[in-house]
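Q: I'm teaching a short session on how sequence maps to structure, and I want students to see two examples side by side rather than one. Could you give me a first protein with its sequence written out and its structure tokens following it? Keep the formatting plain so it prints cleanly on a handout.
A: Of course. Example one:
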Amino acid sequence: MTTPVALTIAGSDSSGGAGIQADLKTFAALGVYGASVITALTAQNTNGVTGIHRVPAEFVTAQIDAVFSDLDVKAVKIGMVAQRATIDAIVAGFSRWTPKHVVLDPVMVATSGDRLLAADAVEALRTRLIPRASLITPNLPEAAALLGAPVAVSEADIEGQGQLLLSMGCAAVLIKGGHADGAESIDYLAHGSSTIALAAPRIATRNTHGTGCSLSSAIAAGLAKGEDLEAAVRQAKAFVSAAIAAADLFSVGHGHGPIHHFHKFY
């Protein structure tokens, strides 16, 4: 039996709710073996980020080569990349190892408002990393920032931004609607010339720390197991929705607490 392996390339969250920690929990909950390449260490908790220590690009390279030279990686999730030199290291690593599936969560700002990507790295994200992605998963503010446009409000505007993001060279775009209003949280999957709306009930909880990280890693887990893109996105959205619904079973921290990755198990 072949063990599906997924790799997360992201930052570490010292409070365990987002980043590398959320990704590895998600992989494990969905039956996928998780490996990691750490791009930055953060000092953070449920109230916000108090410090960032960027991992040197050459050590990011060393981690990438160590993983790919030994493990049969079926899918990669990319989260916080922190700086331009890290983007360059990732792109060079992908040229050597050519992963089949790359899910890019274009993390630029934390939920708390703390900046997680250097300003001079945004253009490299647009022009060097996005064209390598099988799927990018921006939320509404991130999609607007990537396009230098206002945050989309209407469904037509969201679909239009999805098509513009596709023109940057990625194979598919999932614009997440968690920042919008309404009784439902609607995500929009743009692939080719079509857009699919994926709705789920909006859940009233303040414990949503790590939601975006977990969604992108859940999609990568599905792709690692051989699911097609739409199936992987649908199962990922169902997993995260259930994890949010169970989040209040936790009492962790004094701010926005984590979601419950292992809701199926305890």
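Q: Perfect. Now a second example for contrast.
A: Example two:
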Amino acid sequence: MIKFNTQESSCNQCLTQDCFIKKYCSEEYMTIISNAKETSVYRQNQYIAYEGNTVLGLFFIQSGKAKIISEGINGKVQVIRLTKQGDIIGHRGLGGEKYPISAIALEESHICLIDNDTIYEAFIDNPKLTYELMVYYSKELRYSETKIKNQTQMNVREKVADALLYCNSLFNENSRIQLKRQDLAALAGINSEQLSRILSEFKKESIISLSKDEISIINQDYLKKLIASL
């Protein structure tokens, strides 16, 4: 992990237009947060936050991607969601003592950490920021509820289709998905063998094409129809 100094990580100079701070904070608070935050580079597969560790504040993704995971029985890892530039990590820990999840960089990522006291004061003095974060929570809750419902109703084929569409929509990758098979399986809630079997079937049916590091969606309409009845 490489840390930057305050000047290099100034919010005013940041090119990430999707950041909650840039969009919803006053100029005064952008300066306050710039002086208080800590910006670091996390390498691929490096932990950004650890489940069970003390809550330090909120992490904002300046650039890059990350996966949010939780460990279950016998150390089984579940990928809860994926995140991208402009998203927030660690918000589920606010108001508590420990992070309920872990976050791992999927690629080299620039992450800003805003400590608990600073973000609390920002919420108090920037109602628009507080409201938009509430909307963010609401959208994430709806996604989690839908995912739980779908996991109980979908067969394996539908789970893979849903995971592929989710990745493509979230990252806007023009139907090219770059995600480790293990992570895709954990996101879909299936094992690696089941994922390989369904991907092979989709490939034979010309729904996707496969390479070592990439899945390309050829027939997105088919995948949408596959889960449309749920």
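Q: What should students look for in example two?
A: Point them to this: The CA atoms of residues 57 and 134 lie 16 Å apart. Also worth mentioning: The chain has two domains: 2-128, 149-228.
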